[in-house]
Amino acid sequence: MKSYIKLTVAVIALIAVIFTGANFILNNAGKGDEGRPYRVEAQRIAVKIENGDDYSLSDYPTITNVEKLTDGFKSGDSDYLVKDIGGTLYRFDYSYNSDNSTAVRLFNISFGVVAAFVLVLMAVLFIRIIRPFEKISDYPTELAKGNLTAPLKESKDNYFGRFLWGLDLLREKLESQKSAELELQKQNKTMVLSLSHDIKTPLGVIELYAKALEKGLYKDEQKKLEVARNINGKCEEIRGYVDGIVKASSGDFLNLEVHNGEFYLSALISQIKAFYTDKLNLLKIDFSIESFSDCILSGDLERCVEVLQNIIENAVKYGNGKEISIAFSREDDCQLVHIRNSGCTLSENELPHIFDSFWRGSNTGSNSGSGLGLYICRTLMRKMNGDIFAEIDGGDMIVTAVFTIA
Predict the structure, then answer these.
(1) Which of 114, 226, 267, 348 is 20 to 30 A from 354, alpha carbon to alpha carbon?
(2) What residues does 94 pair with on adjacent strands?
(3) All residues at 6 or more sequence positions from 369 whose CB lies less than 8 Å from its CB, including other chains
(4) Given the DSSP bridges, would you call strands 396-405 and 323-331 parallel, antiparallel or unpaired?
(5) 8 A C-beta contact, residue 96 and residue 38
(6) For the whole model, what pTM was predicted?
(7) Which of 208, 204, 209, 196 is closest to 242 using CA atoms?
(8) CA-CA distance, 274 to 279, in Å (whole number)?
(9) How far apart are the first and last CA of the chain?
(10) Domains plus CATH for the chain?
């Protein structure tokens, strides 16, 4: 805001300087000798008269008459000047209009229109863009602080309509994720408390049986066998609770939404090509996409883009940085997209685990990550009735996404 105000003041000052300077130059034009050509022409004629040469007034546009002043000065309406040529006075009548008022007026009108346009344009920019943007400049900071309750006011113009809509959509998404996280924490605490209570009962029974056996309260072998069976039953009960915990923790905790529809394969590949051509070129990675036959696929286009982006990002991160290529094939009613990167250092026995959640291979090194990228890819592909698999071929990693043809 302050920078724009300074810019506006500088523009106004520049307009004032140009206006003043131009008017000064135009108003003073013609006041020096170089601006009075009749003096030059009169001097040239005087030289010819003094040398006895002939001359023609048609060659001197500003001089209208030349005559000797033998009987004193003559009056007249025309402008003139007098020169002494060889002891004789000559009168030079001239016609020259040095008035620049018309030029000054035209300049002032033209410059005024341009200056007014510039100032109006800057005012419109301030009212329609700078000031509204200033009002929302703190909104991302508020989102980062966790202030997700206040919705963003809609703008009456279309300059920031999509931008404001996107910010408010981001706020709603963050608010939804925060609510889901709080609900998950609540459920986890409830589950822990419930399981703690439920496990205490069989543990108490096992403890009582153990103490009874320790003290030798059961003399009958049949009774001891019955107690052993009861202990085993309670252990199975506890194992069931533990299995429940494992199942709950391995569920779809990411809550990935998919909106299945139909889209062209070319629409998917064009987005990938537009995003990665320049990026991989800057990284000096040879990126190629083989030709393919276009077809209509079933699924969520945005999620499919996300899947291929995750695969390529992994190829950039864990490959040797030399080559990434995309190839295509068809099997039955499925379109296969193969993403190959050179320099695979993953061992064969680790390959079956790369789609597990939170799993990271031995080739990760110092690269940061959560171990969720390929797990998310598999989850999304299966929600779109597709699949994903990987293989190692001659030192290259090939990840294949399987899409259903509509």
Answers:
(1) 267
(2) 63, 79
(3) 317, 360
(4) unpaired
(5) yes
(6) 0.51
(7) 196
(8) 9
(9) 52
(10) 261-405 (3.30.565.10)
d(CA 358, CA 369): 9
Residues 224-237, buried b or exposed e (16+ Cβ, 10 A)?
eeebeeebeebeeb
- Collapsing DSSP states into helix, strand and coil, what is residue 285? coil
Tokens linked to 208: 């009582």
Quote the distance between the C-alpha of residue 139 and its chain's center.
17
Sorted by sequence, the CB contacts under 8 Å of residue 282 that are 6+ apart come out as none
**Which residues, 6+ apart, have CB-to-CB distance to 247 below 8 Å?**
none
pLDDT by 10s per residue, the chain, length 406: 678 888 888 889 898 888 888 877 777 665 555 557 888 889 999 999 888 888 898 889 888 898 888 765 556 667 888 888 888 889 999 887 655 667 778 888 988 899 999 999 988 888 888 877 777 777 777 777 777 666 666 655 556 677 777 777 888 878 877 777 777 778 777 777 777 767 877 888 888 888 888 888 888 888 888 888 888 888 888 888 777 776 666 555 566 789 999 999 999 999 999 989 888 988 899 999 999 999 999 999 999 999 999 999 989 988 888 999 999 999 989 999 999 999 887 888 888 888 887 767 666 655 665 667 888 899 999 999 999 999 998 889 999 999 999 8
Q: Which two tokens stand for residue 209?
A: 């049986």
SS3 102: helix
- DSSP H or E stretch at residue 269: helix 265-282
Cα separation, 345 vs 351, in Å, equals 11
Which of 65, 50, 54 has the alpha carbon at shortest distance from 95? 65
Phi (first) and psi of residue 262, to 5 degrees: -130, 145
C-alpha–C-alpha distance, residues 222 and 228, integer Å: 10
Helices (H), 71-220: 101-125, 131-136, 139-145, 161-215
Question: What are the C-alpha distances in Å from 250 to residues 196, 245, 270, 278, 375?
Answer: 20, 9, 35, 38, 12
Q: How far apart are CA 354 and CA 360, in angstroms?
A: 7
Beta strands 334-342 and 296-299 are unpaired
Under 8 Å between Cβ of 148 and 168: no
**Helix boundaries (H) for 283-332:** 301-318
CB 90 within 8 A of CB 82: yes
